[in-house]
């Protein structure tokens, strides 16, 4: 301290003594458990580090102090519009949680640590989005959050700020891109459904072929199947029952009696 500073300090102490006990109201200060006080004496940082929690003493007219909150603070990163690595425009917003781990650096080395952290978070989010593809942004949000947290933590460490967590809230896509992706997904599902239906038809045809081979080996099996079908129809309380008649039975009448019937019809017409 210089000579003038010594004189100012001694004068403040004498004034405090002369105005006792009223000066004690300006000498003793209290900070909460979650706060710390950084004291400056004539513009210089006072030795001993941050004070608190509890009561501490300052010299009026010479000392000034600044309170710092050590609790975790969260803020929303405004939606940031950025161009991805594959030239797609996306809008992403996030949430950042941070706290003060060094009150002295938070007061001395940065003018406004809260505003500086907010601006840095917005810039970091845009930079990270520019290095990712659209598929990575949509499917791997945790990796983006971790990369953003690491980058912010390194940048804010000289300010005495500790970034505890970063979470991606929402990813917004343009309307045209959403419609295109929906159409692509619908076409993919339809193609998959057609493939599944074709596989089902193929398996059903194989099963029918095996069943026909079994029935062909035993003629009585076809008759049993015929009777079983009639039993199923009668169990449903239907008023009409259709009896299937094999074409082989009618072939005899078609081949032998068919020409005679036609001749008789011609004679009748004549």
Structural notes for this entry:
Helix 4 packs across helix 6 (about 140-155) and helix 7 (about 175-215) crosses helix 8. The chain has ten helices and eight strands. The chain is about 55% helix and about 20% strand. The relative contact order is 0.07. Strand 2 (about 35-40) and strand 3 form a beta hairpin. By secondary structure, it is an alpha+beta fold. Mean pLDDT is about 80; it is low at about 265-270. The protein has a three-stranded antiparallel β-sheet with strand order 3-2-5.
How is this structure best summarized?
With 270 residues, the protein is of the alpha+beta class. Helix content is 54%, strand content 22%.
Task: Provide tags for this entry.
three-stranded antiparallel sheet, 270 residues, alpha+beta
Looking across the biggest beta sheet, what order are the strands in? 3-2-5
Question: How far from one another are the termini?
Answer: 146 Å
pLDDT averaged residue by residue: 80
Sketch the topology as an H/E string, one letter per element: HHEEEEEEEHHHHEHHHH
Radius of gyration, in Å, reads 45 Å
The share of residues in extended strands comes to 15-25%
InterPro entries: Band-7_stomatin-like, Band_7, Band_7/SPFH_dom_sf, Band_7/stomatin-like_CS, Stomatin_HflK_fam
Main location: membrane
GO cellular component, one term: membrane
Pfam families: Band_7
Task: List the topology elements.
Elements: H1 3-18, H2 24-27, E1 28-31, E2 35-41, E3 44-45, E4 54-57, E5 63-69, E6 73-83, E7 89-100, H3 103-108, H4 113-129, H5 134-139, H6 141-156, E8 161-172, H7 175-217, H8 219-235, H9 247-256, H10 258-269
GO cellular component, one term: membrane
Family: Belongs to the band 7/mec-2 family.
Organism: Cryptolaemus montrouzieri
